[in-house]
Specification:
The chain is α+β, with helices and mostly antiparallel strands and 463 residues long. The protein is 60% helix and 13% strand. A four-stranded antiparallel sheet has the order 2-3-5-6, with no helix packed on it. The two termini are 26 Å apart.
């Protein structure tokens, strides 16, 4: 029930389901223009995921089962009617109980009989059994509906992780291409200088530049893998056709400022809104009601009943003597009051203890949730603060590294700079820019985790 491990570090998101997906690359031929790419926003992807998810449908079926059980429990307060109708051969019986020309040991079967028997039982007082079952069933519906909301919140967080992972992978690929492009130009220029035997041209510079370029490109395949897996997983969850082009509305990551409630208020909100808390609250009421229902079996169950019979056979004389009853040719109705009591020598007591233990188990789960959920909120807020500080630090750092790289390229082009300076500038810029992308990813994911931890994820998407 708890989801304490929801906050991820800025690594490539590789979900188990994503491992079975592939990204279909459409290569347009000269005779066929490329198909237009569908563009999806984060809200579009979440909406599609919640609409088609089999996990959501599975939870909804559980809610339907709970509602059916509630209907059963509600119907327990109404009368239960049993009707039995039979037909069969009838032996002739004339006269009355005192005198008859027919004999039981020498029957004459020359007709048929019809018999309809109806029993109606109306519970009157059950010492809380019916009330307990109805209350438990009603709370069970709330538990199952909260499970639907919990699963929806899980999927929303999952889609957000994939969405931001793809954007970060796209940014990383762009950064790698940018750095490798600059180094490629420097390599080409150095090669020309060596061939032209320009004074100061050194093969060591060429080796260093190629080494720096190799260091940059070694991360490209990993970034591409993250991009492809995130894309495939998003298409899987959103139910998109994998043969069709697919694009996101955003080109890269952004860290847009967003107001977040204080951590203390967020913890209080989480204890109120989280579907896990709704489950344990309803579960406590349900198990308490089941204890009451089991305890009612220690007492008699009072009821009213109607028993009526209609039987008819054309070859038998109907008896008018009140002491004589003919099961094949008679009719009567009787209304009674009664009670039923089962003495089972310990079985009921055992069922009561089992119900009480279930109630205590749910109570322990509630206490655990009340401790763990606020910690989850506090953790998400702490990671948001860390991401904000990292953003500030890396923002200034990568911009200055960019200026260093531009200056190093200019100096190298003029022949007054060394290849080592150019390579170090490119390496530093790549590292700081990558750290900045990761900080933006962590920032956005921390906001998503705060919404999840406070129980606002589903409500925010419903707006």
């Amino acid at each position: 029930m708890m989801n304490a491990g929801r906050v991820r570090q800025a690594h490539w998101i590789v979900l188990p389901l994503a491992l079975i997906t592939t990204v279909a690359a459409i290569r347009p031929t000269s005779a066929q223009p490329p198909a237009p790419k569908a563009v999806y926003t984060l809200k579009d992807l979440i909406g599609r995921t919640l609409a088609i998810s089999p996990e959501i449908r599975q939870m909804q079926r559980g809610a339907e089962v709970a509602m059916a059980k509630k209907d059963q429990a509600d119907a327990g307060r109404f009368p239960q009617i049993e009707v039995t109708a039979i037909v069969g051969p009838s032996s002739r019986a004339r006269g009355d109980a005192a005198s008859s020309p027919d004999r039981k040991d020498d029957p004459t079967v020359n007709n048929v009989f019809e018999r309809v028997e109806m029993k109606l039982v109306q519970p009157l007082y059950t010492f809380g059994k019916l009330t307990g079952f109805r209350s438990a069933a009603e709370e069970g519906v709330k538990v199952e509906k909260a499970k639907v909301e919990e699963k929806a919140a899980d999927l929303i967080l999952r889609v957000k992780e994939l969405y931001y992972s793809r954007l970060m992978a796209s940014d990383m690929l762009g950064l790698i291409d940018e750095i490798s492009g600059d180094l490629d130009k420097a390599i080409v220029k150095t090669t020309r200088r060596l061939k032209a035997e320009v004074p100061g041209a050194d093969e060591i510079d060429l080796y260093k530049l190629k080494a720096f370029r190799g260091e940059v490109l070694k991360n490209r395949e990993e970034a591409q893998k993250g991009f492809d897996l995130a894309t495939g997983a998003l298409m899987f969850y959103a139910g998109l056709n994998r043969t069709q082009p697919f694009e996101l509305d955003a080109i890269g990551l952004e860290a847009s400022p967003k107001d977040v409630e204080p951590v203390d208020r967020g913890m209080g909100m989480a204890l109120e809104l989280r579907p896990e808390m709704a489950q344990v609250r309803a579960g406590l009421k349900a198990t308490e009601a089941l204890v009451m229902a089991e305890e009612s079996n220690l007492y008699p169950q009072f009821f009213a009943a109607v028993n009526s019979v209609y039987a008819q056979a054309g070859n038998r004389t109907r008896q008018q003597n009140p002491f004589a009853f003919d099961p094949l040719n008679d009719r009567y109705a009787v209304i009674v009051l009664g009670f039923k009591y089962d003495l089972d020598f310990g079985i009921t007591r055992g069922k009561i203890r089992a119900a009480q233990a279930e109630h205590l188990k749910v109570s322990e789960t509630k206490q655990f949730a009340e401790q763990g959920i606020p910690l989850q909120v506090r953790k998400a807020h702490r990671e948001l603060a860390e991401a904000q500080e990292t953003l500030k630090a890396t923002e200034d750092g990568w911009r200055n590294a960019k200026k260093w790289l531009v200056a190093a390229k200019a100096n190298y082009d003029l022949g007054v700079g060394e290849s080592r300076d150019l390579g170090q500038a490119a390496e530093t810029y790549a590292k700081l820019r990558a750290d900045n992308f990761k900080a933006m990813y962590n920032y956005n994911l921390s906001l998503a985790n705060i919404e999840y931890a406070t129980g606002r994820a589903v409500k925010e998407e419903a707006k």
